Amino acid sequence: MDEFDLINSITPRTIHHSSVDVGIGDDAALYTAKNGVQEIVCVDTMVEDVHFKLSYSSPEDIGYKALAINISDIAAMGGIPKFYLVSLAVPLKWTESEIKAMYEGMNELAKLYCMDLIGGDTVSTSDKLVVTVTVIGEVEKGRACLRSLAKPNDIVFVTGEIGSSAAGLSLLLKESSHPETSFETNYFINRHKRPQPRVSVGRLCSNAQRVALNDISDGLASELHEIAESSSVSIEIDESLLPVHPDLPKLNSKWKEWALFGGEDFELTGTISKEDWDVLEQECCRLQLPIKKIGCVREKTESNVILKTEEETMTLEKKGYNHFK
Amino acid sequence: MDEFDLINSITPRTIHHSSVDVGIGDDAALYTAKNGVQEIVCVDTMVEDVHFKLSYSSPEDIGYKALAINISDIAAMGGIPKFYLVSLAVPLKWTESEIKAMYEGMNELAKLYCMDLIGGDTVSTSDKLVVTVTVIGEVEKGRACLRSLAKPNDIVFVTGEIGSSAAGLSLLLKESSHPETSFETNYFINRHKRPQPRVSVGRLCSNAQRVALNDISDGLASELHEIAESSSVSIEIDESLLPVHPDLPKLNSKWKEWALFGGEDFELTGTISKEDWDVLEQECCRLQLPIKKIGCVREKTESNVILKTEEETMTLEKKGYNHFK
């Protein structure tokens, strides 16, 4: 593969943001930041056989997800994603068309958000594929949704449904199977392979007075821990309120573990004042964006995160779920 | 290794730029861009056994170089490096102290430029170390040194000396040996392992009316090709003017190949009008920054880059030098 040909083939023909002064094709990209905004930047890496397997993920899927998980970080700040840069360490056996397919998977998602690919690097490796995506976004000054903003008496909420990504992975790894149609099987699998970042909800949160927000990459319990720690509060959630797909319990007895610790749902979880919650809930309802109250914030205690079930009240640990163990 | 402990240990205790609003510790970093500047962003990946070998590079060396090559891209735009983000795919056998040492190598260089580490990601891999660094910088609006700015009759220049990095690698791989002292051996090896980005010269170039600029990552010939192509000109250089270390010819008969195609020198090469050249040369002289005229820009011909030697005039191909072949 010729690097120059590859760069040429992936260079976008159109640029959405006029603030891009120089995109791909020089030593670095140049853009002009707007007045009155803060720049947001994040980077995430996905490694073959750690975060995905080539046996079930196509190059398009891998590209899509690598960008999605970074857009999700921008969403979790309440921001608008604008630009991305892609760095690939590609095994020698990959063909140019497979590499292009990975970029096409990213482009599919980037188009939705009018994002511009402005740079990157492609190098070869002798072994596993490593995909690193950097995303740059912006948020109106002072409106970012930080983890440290939770206060006692806030409502705790989560978007969409949780545990479905872990369910999809379990189906992919054949640890679970769906008793009925393949439609639901594909649904869960897509939740794992092609997560949908919650940019719109993040934007609504940035309109509110004060929202502490995280995206669910490591699992609900872990994300709430981070908010509790950063904000010096305790967070109490109610098991009966956790939004899960109605078929989730049919798949595997581990479904509650998936919902709390499974991760990779890339939904948003956060806290907001009671007054602002009503507005946020209504706005989400109007835009048909699923969001649900799952608990409330307490004064700091020894337990960062507390789960109330019908039978008991227990401390939730900050553990993740190691999918490939 | 616990990811949370690691993040804690690498999080900087002080921040140089007050424009950093949120550094490490949330979903993404937040900063405020200055008025009147353009943001510069670039990303580069280094892979074990492709770009370095653990047999001769310490974790500190690897970290240092991974940051240096990105700072060099900012220098090649005439910019000031400000922030960096680090994404690591780390083999399971690496210890936490080795990972920290890699960050220390980066920090050594970052301190020189008052750069802030504002984010990143560390994941495990079963195989080779992959280090991806994203650097963000800035340049005064309209002052970036782009590849497309060369014009006929410009002076072509290069900083420092070229071929020394390839020489260092050759010494490391024991393909060459230095006939005399180990001082020179170490010098060449350091040129390979710890390149010095030319930020100061880049800044002087950004003061000039118009400078086309590239950093030498793929070799002088390749970089000049890029400028010639982007600017639709031809570039003629004079072999006798190429700045090489006086000991280079002693090391290996390939020394001219190293100078033209070796790459990884991370010097700057560019073109500037005759009038502005005198000023740039004087300013560099005053600051003891080595810079040398090596040729001139011509109207576009069939050959993008032409080398004049005592015997002949030849076309230089856009080839790189594959070090590990």
TrEMBL record, chains A, B:
Binding site for Mg(2+) 4: D27, D73
CDD domains the UniProt entry points to: ThiL
E.C. no: 2.7.4.16
Binding-site positions, Mg(2+) 1: D44, D121
Superkingdom, natural source: Bacteria
Function (record text): Catalyzes the ATP-dependent phosphorylation of thiamine-monophosphate (TMP) to form thiamine-pyrophosphate (TPP), the active form of vitamin B1.
Name of the protein in its database record: Thiamine-monophosphate kinase
